[in-house]
Amino acid sequence: MSDRIELRGLHVSAVCGVLPEEKAHRQPFELDLDVYTDLAIASTTDDLTDTVDYGALCALVARTAEQESFDLLERFASRVAEGVLATGGVEAVTVVVRKLRPPVPEDLATSGVRIHRTA
């Protein structure tokens, strides 16, 4: 499937990490999603019901970040992917999760993972 909905730079706060300080406080994360779906019908009808509502996808990601906690970025990304794939009409998804303040002494802007899952 070559059609996709692209969401870039979605900011959420979540509990994710293995260090005690990461488990004690929410941290900022940035997510990108590529949602693979057939956009042919929506491109002719101009009707929201014929596509995947990206507002609902953003809410799903925010809810996942708010209600769950994770040790690994890999699990965070996987839980987001599971939720997106459960959305009607989604054939595949690529999820990128970036930790905006990684706990390392070096000058590292972000750490992250990218996963791709299919229905």
Structural notes for this entry:
Helix content is 32%, strand content 34%. It is built from 4 helices and 5 strands. The chain has a 5-stranded mixed β-sheet. It is elongated, with a radius of gyration of 15 Å. The mean pLDDT is 97.
Relevant terms:
single chain; alpha+beta; five-stranded mixed beta sheet; 119 residues; GTP Cyclohydrolase I, domain 2; 34% strand
Task: Please write out the topology.
Layout: E1 4-16, H1 20-24, E2 27-36, H2 40-45, H3 54-67, E3 69-70, H4 73-85, E4 92-99, E5 111-118
Parallel strand pairs: 1-3
Antiparallel strand pairs: 1-2, 2-4, 4-5
Instruction: Summarize the biggest pleated sheet.
Output: 5 strands, mixed
* Low-confidence runs of at least 5 consecutive residues: none
SS summary, helix count: 4
Instruction: Tell me the structural class.
Output: alpha+beta
The overall number of domains is: 1
Q: How widely separated are the two ends?
A: 12 Å
CATH top level label: Alpha Beta
Radius of gyration over all CA atoms, rounded = 15 Å
The helicity comes to 25-40%
- Looking at this structure, what is the CATH superfamily? GTP cyclohydrolase I, C-terminal domain/NADPH-dependent 7-cyano-7-deazaguanine reductase, N-terminal domain
What is the CATH topology assignment? GTP Cyclohydrolase I, domain 2
- Strand portion: 25-35%
Report the strand count.
5
CATH architecture: 2-Layer Sandwich
**Widest sheet: strand order?**
3-1-2-4-5
- Give the SSE string: EHEHHEHEE
Overall morphology: elongated
Mean pLDDT: 97
